[in-house]
Amino acid sequence: MQLSAESTSRFVQAGDVRIHYHEAGEGPVLLAIHGGAPGAYGWGNFGQNLAALSQHFRVVIVDLPGYGKSDKPAIATGRYGFYADVFENMLTALGIDRCHIVGLATGGAAGLMMALRRPELIERLIVVAPPVGPSLFAAAPTEGAKHIMGYYGGTGPSREKMQRYLETIIFDKSRITDELIDDRHRVSIDPDFMATAHEGHARSTPVEPIWQRLSEVETETLIIWGRENRVIGFDVGLFMLAQMKRAQLNVYGRTGLWAPWEQTARFNRDVIGFLSADI
């Protein structure tokens, strides 16, 4: 049976938050957490990886609280801790005692927070360009961050703004299709999403300084970065590698922020290899 967003769609009550997710496959659980940006959602970030990864794992692709079809609660405390709480409750509700995690950008930060707070829940961790360290070389805010922060400002969200944002996160611009732009733009202008979006506004939202605690992470971790990432430079990955006791770093050339999509086959091989290998 061909896997689709519709056929794999599920909901679960995780404490006070109803979470939407996609599930397929059997075996060790792999929780996939997407990045936070205008128009982001679980299937949009990891749907293209599901067929290959579900041959080896029980893959659970979530919509972050506030994104996709998940509830959109107000978050007054640190976001990464809030996400960790929700996903810990989600694992309990699904009867999952232990899992692997793969997280993109904000999703990687949430995974790191879970590894810090509840390491017994996490078997191995894969993070793709998480925003958890200072850049040594890139001026702040980066080009990509400016596109994100200004998305809802000025004249408001638009298809043109979404196209410019996608052009900063994807190295090979020939792969940016009208369908991709339209999908991300459509999701970004959902009224409920716009009312609670944590990225896309000039206002700051509270996040915890995880970079100060990277040395405390004991979980075996694979760090993946695109060399041409114009949102979070790969030197942050080098900083993480220097701080973390049990980490390795893979840098993909000719790749921007969205490595699971731009380098789907290589990313899938790296994920399967890392999670299956004896370490």
From TrEMBL:
<dbReference type="InterPro" id="IPR000073">
    <property type="entry name" value="AB_hydrolase_1"/>
</dbReference>
<dbReference type="InterPro" id="IPR029058">
    <property type="entry name" value="AB_hydrolase_fold"/>
</dbReference>
<protein>
    <submittedName>
        <fullName>Alpha/beta fold hydrolase</fullName>
    </submittedName>
</protein>
<feature type="domain" description="AB hydrolase-1">
    <location>
        <begin position="28"/>
        <end position="132"/>
    </location>
</feature>
<dbReference type="GO" id="GO:0016787">
    <property type="term" value="F:hydrolase activity"/>
</dbReference>
<keyword id="KW-0378">Hydrolase</keyword>
<dbReference type="Pfam" id="PF00561">
    <property type="entry name" value="Abhydrolase_1"/>
</dbReference>
